Amino acid sequence: MREEALHQLSTWAEPFDRDRLVGVYRPLPVRDAQPVLAALDAHLASLLTDSTRSVKRAVLRAVEEFKFTAASPRILALMSDPSEDGEVRAEALGVLSDFDDPKLLEAVALAGASNAPELRMATLPILARLSPKQALPILTLMAETGSAAEQQASFTAIADLADPAAADLLAAGLKRLLAGEVPYLAQVELLDAAEASEFPVVQTAFADLQAHWTVHGDTLAPYRGALEGGDARKGWRLFNQHPVLACTHCHKANGEGGEAGPDLSDIAERTSSEYIRESIIDPNAAIAPGFDVVAFTLSDGGYFAGTIAEETPEKIVIWDAAGTKQEIDPAKVLDRAAAPSSMPPIFGLVLKRSEMRDLMAFMKTLKPGDPIGQSDDGEGETATRATHGE
Description:
Blueprint (H helix, E strand, L loop, with lengths): L1 H9 L23 H16 L3 H13 L6 H9 L5 H13 L5 H9 L4 H14 L1 H14 L2 H11 L5 H15 L5 H13 L3 H16 L16 H10 L10 E2 L2 E2 L9 H4 L2 H9 L11 E6 L4 E9 L4 E4 L5 E4 L4 E7 L7 H4 L2 H11 L27
Antiparallel strand pairs: 1-2, 3-4, 3-7, 4-5, 5-6
Helix pairs in contact: 1-3, 2-3, 3-5, 4-5, 5-6, 5-7, 6-7, 7-8, 7-9, 8-9, 8-10, 9-11, 10-11, 10-12, 13-17
């Protein structure tokens, strides 16, 4: 409950358009952040010392969201505490980095000597920014022989290095990806770093990789990284509030949403992650039963296409691509033919790789009774209703 309250506070100044509890579309104006800052300041000490891990992380997110730099001394103390959870300490270091805190170098030195692997990995992008030459040998070792999480952290850090040696690491990583040797968890960071690089050696390796995918017709390869990792909370926002492609315009989830597409409430229980990813990228690869799109050409020159909601001798009712019901007079139908899925095959173009991974992380929570972002200490968020905008 406290975690959810803190999450609500973190969005106080610019609240979501949709109510997180009941799913009602209810946009609110921008609000003054000062009351929230005052509340955080008054309770920060106890929240960061006498709370569960998930509550502490929610506090850190709120502090970062509001750029509450006055909290930096307490954040540094939290990060420096060897008895604290490694992920909490890593997130605290990230807040200090985001603030460009005057004691950031001191914090990095402490973190680098820590026995918490999550905290040590969190130093990499900061170290790469502050001291590239010192970071390169560590990044090389992690990129080539590290765990999936270490490779992910190393490619994130390498992306910030304008150094030929870093470019060589990216090129080598792309070749290992071509050989199937890069774990899913690290692929988004590797591909994003390679795509942004201006070094010819990286551009050549990236072009070779894309050519290989094209020759083999592997349209899903660029999105394999979406199968691991991701932030389900961010995915929830994309599912409900993406400005162009909010999924709830056409799909139900947790009892609310549109009717044009299949109900996704238990999609993660019924299908595999690979199937979900393919359905997002290539909707025509496998159309769910009952959601075949039918196109109708009418005698008066009209044309309709959608999934059939009801059909009798007197009328045909369809859901069109906009999620709107359309009624057709059967007597006016000149031609009736199968059509491609009403879901546009453009999600791979519109969403960033990291957004696709976050969306997948949310989709994998769509099981009966499964929480979104459930924390190890049991304070996760109950599955938020995904709703269709009024």
